Model the fold of this input.
Amino acid sequence: MEKNSQPSNFKQKRYLIFLIITFISLLLPFAKLDGKHFFLLSFDKKQLHFFFTVFDMQELYLMPFLLIFMFLGIFFMTTLGGRVWCGWSCPQTIFRTIYRDLIQTYLLKIRKNSKNKQLPETEGQFLKKTVAILIWSTLSLVASANFMWYFIPPEDFFAYILKPQEHIVLVVFLLSIALFLIYDAVLLKEDFCIYVCPYARVQSVLFDNDTLQTIYDTQRGGKIYDEHGVKLWSKPQGNNDECTGCEACVRVCPTHIDIRKGMQLECINCLECADACAPIMAKFNKPSLISWTSTNAVEKGQKTEFVRFRTIAYAIALVCALAMLVVLGSNKEHMLLNINRTTQLYKINKDESVDNIYTFLFQNTDAKKHTYFFEVDNKDIALKQPSAPFSIKSGEKVKKIVVLSSKRALESQEKEIALKITAFATDDKEKIKIQRETTFIYPKKLP
Done:
């Protein structure tokens, strides 16, 4: 006789992870270091904060690698653990669990119990149902605000929300997201996972026979469905088939499927069916017929291979994307400079010196105020204007008219002389220094 198996308690583990994810998502927008956020994509200030480093919109070459890393991470996780994201981390699943299990079932008793998700809501109880929607509406506003904090920092968000008439767009976005969350949890429900979510459509192509999935062991439990998906019976007829036909796994499924049918698009790997089966089989001193395992482990009795070509390929791609993020992040420029020439090519002075006029657009992308100046690499060309260093606040853009002048009549007969302009912060020259190339136009023949 097999060793007794206690209930797996996947449900409690999921709830703990839900709680951790909720706290992290709520607190992360408030994580700051020297005024820099851990993560913030600010459309208001046109900045990306990433790991307490600020990148200006002109430095968003980092974003493609960040998105690549995120998607590769999801693909890697799916190849290893199936739709574990959906059942254990997805906001949709967390929201439905809060509304259906916490508010409707445990708090207001609108639903009889959380072990039978196939039963419709109890008829009547209009007042309780209204209270449930009001509670969820309040939580939806909090969730909507939490989402907005990753695009508008909390310190600005609360200041803006106190003056709604001046920030109509913010209010519209806040209410629109909250209304969608209300519709999603109350009316759309698990249909979002089945019909709306694109991840459900692509996840199956990422699976192989070593991918961990929620699997019913047909060799132990017996077949309930034939190869065409037609149900044969509720309880297998074989003498050694262990499935009792209680259908506890069916009743508890949030996406309303029968896991005994095999892998299905709707399965989100929540493993509530494994929890439901475990205490039933424990009465027979046997382990659950449903577990988080691989096809090879169930059908062939082989050990699941986590290190295989597909996982190695994704791991290498993840390391490459992370390396690019680190390299590009470490090469961040703390000052941006664009140099443009004016329409006037040059100006000839009475002393036969020649002036060239430029427009320099500076931006301080560092977290604090700095004083800036610049120098030219040609000893025969001098900086005529501005005559002294100038200050720029953090995040501020400043346009400067710059005049370069030849010190004397240049011997070169070239029309364009290549120059290198070195701009730097006078108070931190080693850290904040960049070079830009431009040209100095000089007439071939002075009048």
